[in-house]
Structures are given as C-alpha cells and as structure tokens.
Amino acid sequence: MCLQQSRTCQCGRHTAHLNFYDNILSPAILVALYCPECRRQAVWNEDCMVEDCGWIMEYDLEGARFLLRQRGVTAEVTPAFLFDEGYLSWQGFTPHDLEVNAALHRRLEPLSREDLPRYLKTLKEEWLAYVASLKAAGWRKAQRA
Ligand SMILES: [Zn+2]
C-alpha cells in the first residue's frame, strides 16, 4: 500500500493526486508544486526540480536522500529519479488521473447494467486511448506505459 494524498499547487487553482512508492518519502519532501499557470513563480533549478507537461515539482533532495538511504536505496537520487521511479510523483500518469478515471466509470455506468461484457471492453478501450493520448502529449509516466 502506497501513501496517497493530494496537494494544491502554489497558485491554488489546481490539485494533484500524489503517490509515494513504498511509503519511503513523506509529503514534506515535496517543497512546492507548480501548475502550468503558476510555474512562472518557480525559479528553475534542475538540482531539485522536475518538469512534466508544464507542471513543476520541487523536492527537498537532501531529505529525500536521507530517507531513501535509510531504507537501503543506494541509487543516485535526482529529481528525475524520485519522479520516474514513483517515490514521489503523480497517482497514475498525470496530476488528475483519479478524476478522469472516476468520470469514465460514471459515464459508462449505465452500460454496465445493460451489457457487462461490452462495458468492460469499452472501459478498457477508452482507458487505453486515454493513455495513448497522454503518451502523445509527452507526460513522463505515460511514456513507460
Ligand atoms: Zn497553480
């Protein structure tokens, strides 16, 4: 079970759902979160920041290194490592996958009562099409899907 929580970006207009692989890092390691609308407030620093489709995550790298080393992770800890390995990144492929997934299920719910096999097939097809669109848009986590 991975710790999950949501975080509002610096300007307060958007919320991202976060996931913490193996529960090693804590929410405090994410020093700041910038959405595409408030990213200009960030002073870009590749030593502690990672960018994903206009969003910027700023990490407490020293804190992350300490916590990961305590748990036996010996790899070089960089912002890209924290993000791409899922130690502190989106829940799903983007900041808002949770809502997208919930909306998809809500939309197809009537079909589930009419025709379950077709519902399951449609659900799978639509989700795969969604993931393909994220991949095309350049979302980092979707590139590995
Ligand atoms: Zn914002």
Description:
The protein is α+β, with helices and mostly antiparallel strands and 145 residues long. The chain has 2 domains: 3-90, no CATH class; 97-143, no CATH class. It is 39% helix and 19% strand. It contains 4 helices and 6 strands. The chain has helices spanning 61-70, 79-84, 97-114, 116-137; strands at 3-8, 15-20, 30-34, 49-52, 55-59, 89-90. It has a 3-stranded antiparallel sheet with strand order 1-2-6. Strands 3-5-4 form a 3-stranded antiparallel sheet. Helix 3 runs antiparallel to helix 4. The longest helix is centred in the C-terminal third of the chain and has 22 residues, at 116-137. It is elongated and about 55 Å long. The chain starts with a strand and ends in an 8-residue tail after the last helix. The site of zinc ion has 9 residues, from loops.
Write the layout of secondary structure elements.
Layout: E1 3-8, E2 15-20, E3 30-34, E4 49-52, E5 55-59, H1 61-70, H2 79-84, E6 89-90, H3 97-114, H4 116-137
Antiparallel strand pairs: 1-2, 2-6, 3-5, 4-5
Helix pairs in contact: 3-4
The chain binds zinc ion.
